[in-house]
Specification:
It is flat and about 70 Å long. A six-stranded antiparallel β-barrel has the order 1-2-3-7-5-4. A six-stranded antiparallel sheet has the order 8-9-12-15-14-13, with no helix packed on it. It folds into four domains: about 5-85, Thrombin, subunit H; about 85-190, Thrombin, subunit H (Beta Barrel), CATH 2.40.10; about 195-280, Immunoglobulin-like (Sandwich), CATH 2.60.40.1080; about 285-380, Sandwich (Immunoglobulin-like). A hairpin with a 2-residue loop joins strand 8 and strand 9 (about 95-105). The longest helix has 12 residues, at about 5-15. By secondary structure, the protein is mainly beta. It has helices spanning about 5-15, 185-190, and strands at about 20, 25-35, 45-50, 55-60, 65, 70-75, 80-85, 85-95, 95-105, 110, 115, 125-130, 140-145, 150-155, 160-170, 195-200, 205-210, 210-215, 215-220, 225, 230-235, 240-245, 250, 255-265, 265-280, 285-290, 295, 300-310, 310-315, 320-325, 335-340, 345-350, 360-365, 370-380. It is built from two helices and 34 strands.
């Protein structure tokens, strides 16, 4: 008598399921390769205990997938095919830029039937989740992919949950397009930005096996903090240290790995922290400094030190402050006018000869002078 495999799969789902995120919500699922041979498209089979729908996003092992097939429901679990989103594309609506995770193909097949489709040269298909933002995309909309401009020629909404765009190779708008960063009409509506990302937990930390450390990041644009920035995290060795899309680090096995945080839509803007998984915790102090990277001559600004022990901020430690010119010349082109164990107020020198030169603010941990951090600050004109 042949036993159905479905009850067995449901058992494995309960006992061996992996943590994933479905549209940002943590769930448990079984995921396996859809085919035995390696192919250009990363396609997998997902089985989840919670309802899933075509067009749902699945975050799995530091990658984002899109559910592309109909859903098979056996009463206990839900099964479907997922494909890895291989690109993000930016769509610009008169200066309102939104980025979308997408499946982009030069040679395509039907996502629901797997049928090969012949496509003209210079044409691509883009598969997007069907939502309020993607429904605003219109014919003739321009965007970039792999530093090439494309124009939307057709929009297909026949598959529930997915929008398919048929796009042709377009032309570059030299005055306005940011080709390097794959953004159409960027400079038509936007001034240039200077982004910076800092992992607030310091440069290194320890975490106990199976314990969790929350990473916090500060992202600035021209020195001004950005609220709710989109950040992508990755681990150099997920078998030692894992991290999810919310910045939660978990120690898996004794060892170490580098955690990298990148500004999702400007991946060259990034920060890193060394994480060591340990069995016994010891003190590992690090310092981070917050404050504007520029100061106008003759003006004052404040800086704050944050002290972390194994990535968690502590408040029983203090720092000593000092200031020097970046080139170690004298006189120093600024002064510390007030300071405490956690903050300092610095005033830039008044000479116009200091404009566009650099001074360095240093914080030294009082209890351990080997732990220091420097912040380079540029002196700017008053005007």
């Amino acid at each position: 008598m042949t036993r159905s495999i479905e009850p067995m799969m449901d058992f494995f789902l309960r006992e061996k399921g992996e943590l994933i995120h479905i549209n940002g919500v943590q769930q448990t699922a079984l995921i396996r390769d859809a085919v035995d041979k390696i192919s250009a498209a990363d396609e997998k089979i997902i089985r989840a205990a919670t309802p899933i729908q075509t067009g749902d996003f699945i975050d799995y092992r530091n990658a984002r997938y899109l559910i592309t097939s109909e859903i098979d429901h056996n009463g206990q679990s839900y099964r479907s095919r997922i494909r890895k989103c291989n690109y993000t594309i930016a769509v610009n609506w008169n200066g309102n830029v939104k980025w979308f995770d997408a499946i982009v193909e030069g040679k395509s097949f039907s996502v629901d039937a797997g049928i090969m489709i012949s496509m003209p040269e210079g044409t691509i298909h883009v598969y997007l989740q069907d939502n309020a933002d993607t429904r605003a995309i219109t014919l003739s909309q321009r965007f970039y992919n792999t530093h090439q401009p494309f124009k939307v020629e057709g929009i297909d909404r026949t598959v529930n949950g997915i929008i398919k765009l048929s796009c042709s190779l377009g032309s570059i708008s030299t005055p306005y397009d940011d080709v390097e960063n794959n953004m159409a009409d960027r400079w038509k509506y936007e001034i240039s930005h200077t982004y910076a990302l800092t992992i607030d937990n310091g440069s290194s930390a320890n975490v106990m096996i199976h314990d969790i450390l929350q990473l916090n990041c500060t992202v600035t644009d021209d020195g001004d903090p950005i609220s709710n920035p989109s950040i992508t995290f990755s681990s150099s060795d997920p078998n030692m240290v894992s991290i999810d899309n919310q910045g939660k680090v978990m120690g898996i096995e004794v060892g170490e790995a580098t955690i990298t945080a990148k500004l999702t839509y400007h991946p060259n803007v990034q920060g890193a922290i060394e994480i060591k998984t340990v069995e016994t915790m010891t003190h590992t102090y690090t310092i981070s400094l917050t404050g504007n990277p520029t100061i106008k001559i003759g003006q004052s600004t404040s800086y704050t030190s944050h002290i972390y022990d194994n990535g968690t901020e502590v408040f029983d430690q203090s720092v000593q402050w000092s200031l020097r010119n970046q080139d170690n010349s004298t006189p120093i082109m600024g002064s510390i006018t007030a300071s405490t164990g956690n903050s300092a107020t610095m005033k830039g020198g008044s000479s116009s000869g200091y404009i566009n030169k650099y001074i360095v603010l240093t914080a030294v941990l009082t209890s351990d002078p080997t732990i220091t951090l420097e912040k380079t600050i540029q002196l700017k004109s008053l005007f």
